[in-house]
Amino acid sequence: MSILSSIENKIIVESFTDKETGAGVKFVVVDYKYPFCKKNNIRRIEFQNGESYLYSSVYLSEKRDFQPMYPCAQRMIDCFFDKSGVDDALVLGCAGCTFPRFLINRYADCEVTGVEYSSQIIEIAKKYFITDKMKSRFEIVNDDAFMYIKEVPERRFDLVFVDIFVAEKIHSSIFSESFISDLYRICGENSMAVFNLFGVGEGKAQRFVESLDVPFDNMYVIEDYRKFFLALTKCKDISRTERFEKKITHYADIRFKK
């Protein structure tokens, strides 16, 4: 047993089975408290399916901008938007609302819309993860993400974060050209769409980007400790693109660019 595991205090808050997605997986809401590092207390939704162990987690302290999940994706957004900030963001797939929490804590004027398929997950999020600070600038919608972006007015969002999974499997439809085209339509000028590619290898991600014929100005496969993200940008400002590429290489590797 490690020193850390011997001192952490794991508290099970609630358990439930999500029946709406068809995954039939048992989820647990858990608090982890570390006596010697109180500011890092963490709340998670987690589950284990065979050999797969997955979770979505947030720092309980609202003083923390960067959240424990997806540090690379958070850096990508910081590097691209720099001082301009994010005004309107869309998060497809919310779970523990890690990304909405980051955006609201990080960007003072950011309004966030979250889309979540499972009404049960939404109730859990409202109960345990959406704070009073978030409520005034965060709307969570119970809808199918693919239908939502087809119907939402065009060129609205500065940022779209795509985090759509069924249990531990990424939703394959995010790789369709129709989905990418819908994203392009709703992304505004100088915008970015970021995909969490957990479980997708570098080769598959690269082949997908190579096959795309959609008018995003730049497409990147970015790696951070064997975790891959896809970034699509709409930006005609070459100097801004160059600044982004230079900055992100301090935190992660650009594995492929188109």
Secondary-structure topology with pairs:
Layout: H1 3-7, E1 9-18, E2 25-33, E3 42-49, E4 52-59, H2 71-81, E5 88-92, H3 98-106, E6 111-116, H4 119-128, H5 132-135, E7 138-142, H6 145-151, E8 157-162, E9 165-166, E10 169-170, H7 177-186, E11 187-196, H8 202-211, E12 218-224, E13 227-234, H9 238-248, E14 253-257
Parallel strand pairs: 5-6, 5-8, 6-7, 8-11
Antiparallel strand pairs: 1-2, 2-3, 3-4, 9-10, 11-13, 12-13, 12-14
What does this structure look like?
30% of the residues lie in helices and 35% in strands. By secondary structure, it is α/β, with parallel strands linked by helices. It has 2 domains: 3-59; 71-257, Vaccinia Virus protein VP39 (Rossmann fold), CATH 3.40.50. β9 (165-166) and β10 form a beta hairpin. α2 (71-81) runs antiparallel to α9 (238-248). The relative contact order is 0.13. The model is unreliable at 1-6 (pLDDT under 50).
Integer tally of domains: 2
- Major sheet summary line: 8 strands, mixed
Roughly how much helix do the residues carry, as a percent range? Answer: 25-40%
The overall pLDDT average reads 87
Helical segment count: 9
* Computed structural class: alpha/beta
Q: Remind me, CATH topology of the largest domain?
A: Rossmann fold
Radius of gyration: 18 Å
Beta-strand fraction estimate: 35-45%
CATH architecture heading of the largest domain:
3-Layer(aba) Sandwich
Major β-sheet strand ordering? 7-6-5-8-11-13-12-14
Q: In CATH, what is the class of the largest domain? A: Alpha Beta
The beta-strand count equals 14
